[in-house]
Design goal:
By secondary structure, the protein is mainly α. The chain is 82% helix and 0% strand. Helix 4 packs across helix 6.
Length: 262
Amino acid sequence: MAVRLRGTEDSGLPDGAVLALSLAGLVAGWMLLSWLVGDESVLAGPVAVWSVIVDQIRSGEMTFHTMTTFGRVCAAFFLSMTMGTLLGITLGLMPRVNRWVDPWVIFFLNLPALVVIVLCYLWIGLNEAAAIVAVSINKTAMVAVTIREGVRSMDPKIADMANVYRMGLGMRCRHVWLPQLAPFFSAGVRNGLAVIWKIVLVVEFLGRPDGVGFMIHLYFQLFDIAHVLAYSLVFVAIMLVIEHVLVQPWESRAARWRVRSS
């Protein structure tokens, strides 16, 4: 059975063209909706928002606040991915431990992000540590569940083959575990980036003096729709670039072994 990687479908157009046309359709729909509304104080159009983005970049405001948020996203992402991966592997390999720890995972998985943020601010203070810890706690359980299911789904026959060839720990990680866990890692990374930056905005909205969330809060108070959309869309654009430049190519390379074995 033939298996196709992402981006190899015979659609007649390269992936870049499909992406550009898709985003152009989204912008066209936005322009149409803005025109139908007819009031930029309710829904600013793409031209107005682009003008705000250019002005904010020239002033240096948008660059500063966007990079501040991006730094918090990266710190919380690496912390939650590290803790969640270690926890998920442990729970997947040790059913007895999973039996006792699983209720804790479910508890943190369903604990509202707003509650965690408020508690961290109350316990730790209105500082960077509280912001990053709050976001990491919210995401770690989700990563742990994803990686745990990946460990559970690994083919025992491949592990038996590794035993026959007496592979060392490094060889097992590279050739046995990582290829099978790659789809689950990519799912964790994709969901992690999508969820973490949204939680970071809430953290900044509630208790930080800088960042995209702080600026959205500021312009929300001023009822300035164009600035709210400008700061939101710039960060969404950064996430799109990460998705298409880093995540998807890595996911395709990691899945090549499945194509060869099909």
